[in-house]
Design a protein that fits this description.
Elements (H helix, E strand, L loop, with lengths): L2 E5 L5 E6 L2 H4 L5 H15 L58 H17 L3 E4 L9 H11 L4 E5 L4 H7 L5 E5 L5 H6 L2 E5 H11 L3
Parallel strand pairs: 1-3, 3-6, 4-5, 4-6
Antiparallel strand pairs: 1-2
Length: 208
Amino acid sequence: MATAACFSASLEKIDPIELAPEIFGVPVREPLLHDVVLMQLANRRRGCASTKSRSDVRGGGLKPWKQKGTGRARVGSRRSPLWRGGSTIFGPKPHSFEYRVPRSARRGAIRSVLSLRAGEGRVLVVEELRLDGGKTRALRTSLARLGISSALVVCAAGDHEIERAARNLPTVKSVEVAGLNVFDVLKYEHLVLTKAALGAIHEKLARS
């Protein structure tokens, strides 16, 4: 059975905590993790690149010169893609890159990445993470006492102090259980869970 290092509210190490094997002890499915990460990155793309087609370029109503007799190539519009200031052929237009993988696949990927971190011994559970008014210094000090610098801190819903404290730390991110995702778990070296967050993860993933 998978276990995780556990710390008290004063960040003193206590007995390890057992993790649910159906969440933290499943086989790691790397292709599934790859598919879900690609989905997350695609959904973050803005897709705002835009170029002008012939109908978007100003001018072009009058034929620049007559069809024959000038010795020059035939041309019908100043909006031609061959001309400077003309249109673009098959250029990009704003569009969405979003797509979804099945819900069962997303949940399976979350279990897989949690099992990966648990197998590496990079899951830490804190009974309660107390911060002085959501100060960044307090969070940095707490993580230093845990012996880590790069961490994804998962807290229970409504715990805004941890989120506020993590904003100015480039190697630390705080999310609620509802926002737990594969990309962030893989990005940071350690996964720090509060006791309340661990219970919420069990309740959320054990149902499906």
